[in-house]
Amino acid sequence: MALGPHDQYLSHGTNTSMVKSQKMEAFTIQSKLSASAPEFYPPGFMAVSSKATADEAYVDFEIPPDLTLADYLQDFLSLLTSHPGSFELEIGQFTEMMNTWVNTDEILQEVVEIIYQQATTVPNFTYTAARLCNYLSQNLTINPRNSNFRQLLLQRCETEYSKRNEAVNGDEKARKKFHSFVLFLGELYLNLEIKGVNGAVTRAEILQIGLCELLSALFSKPVDDNLTCAVKLLKLTGSILEDAWNKQGKSDMAEIIQRVENVVLDSDCSRDVKHMLLKLVELRSSNWGRVHTAVTYNEATPENDPNYYMNEPVFYSAEGIPLTPADPDYLEKYQEMIDREELFQGYSDEDGDAYLDDSEDEMDPEMEEAFEKFCAETEKKTK
């Protein structure tokens, strides 16, 4: 009787070489593929000749007739908002599409406006928007080239900048809109690269001057939300601004910190905002938290750790916006964290699975007797 594939493994009397031969024959499949077959390309893919240069390798995009620039751009911005990690993966194709599409100053102006609106209305998009603006300022071109992306972007920011005095004295809605612009300009200052004639990359000095004026405007009306915005901007850009001003021999940061201290002494702002301003002064005195030697959290003190005031936890709102001590939910979240730490303070990594100290969990004689009785009854029922 012939052995089946499974019988080959179960039989001990069969010759080993014969079993191996039968096993190979059972699983050998004749391939119909050929090494000389033409290369496969997915539908719609245009192959590029190996002799093509890098510039010739790009394929022209065909714009669907029913797709508008605003719709395409808004979809891409929404993608970056929800998946910022896809920036590097998607930006190349997006820029090629925009270079095909953007061929007039009017269209370029529309692109700038759509990106600006998204950057100043969606808090989570501010940083990514600044990165996008930097990339497009270097890679987006139009023909004929009467203007460029960076020029139109700075003009748009100038329009909002000119309204600063009205905005800080306006109603809550106007101030909120202005604060979004201020923080976007801060991110833009950190991310927008300007290439000099010798190839050196620098930051836009005009933005540096603008940020100083914006801080002055915010402190001129020391209400809580204006001061909170100023603190956020200084935490974001303070170290970079001070380094730049020091190189230029300016004392702008010292003057700003003096205004902060004056607000703490004289302003009618809330207690939480004053606390936040004091923390900012302490942060600046510690060189903006920049350290050269590591100090463990338990050993850190204001004297031995310049980063001491950066060790405080950061909490976020449901919208993903960082909370400050001036926000109503900050203290509540801080208390929750402290309660949680107290709950697990008996846990030690050296105890293995002992998450809590069980020294107080011993049963008294009455409980121990009841427990033994319960175990005996359970064992009897099992038998």
Question: Can you walk me through this structure?
Answer:
This protein has 383 residues and is an all-alpha fold. Helices cover 57% and strands 2% of the residues. A two-stranded antiparallel sheet has the order 1-2.
Summarize the structure.
The chain has 383 residues and is mainly alpha-helical. It has helices at 5-10, 16-27, 69-82, 87-101, 105-121, 126-139, 149-161, 164-168, 172-191, 205-220, 224-247, 252-266, 271-285, 328-343, 365-382; strands at 193-195, 201-203.
Q: How can the largest sheet be summarized?
A: 2 strands, antiparallel
Task: State the oligomer.
Answer: single chain
In angstroms, what is the radius of gyration?
33 Å
Q: What value does the average pLDDT take?
A: 77
Strand content: under 5%
Class from helix and strand fractions: mainly alpha
Order of helices and strands: HHHHHHHHHEEHHHHHH
Which runs of at least 5 residues are low in confidence (pLDDT < 50)?
A: 1-27, 44-61, 293-297, 348-360
User: How far is it from the N-terminal to the C-terminal residue, by CA?
Assistant: 50 Å
Number of helices: 15
Biggest sheet, strands in spatial order? 1-2
What would you call the shape?
flat
Let me know the number of strands.
2
| Overall helicity | 55-70%
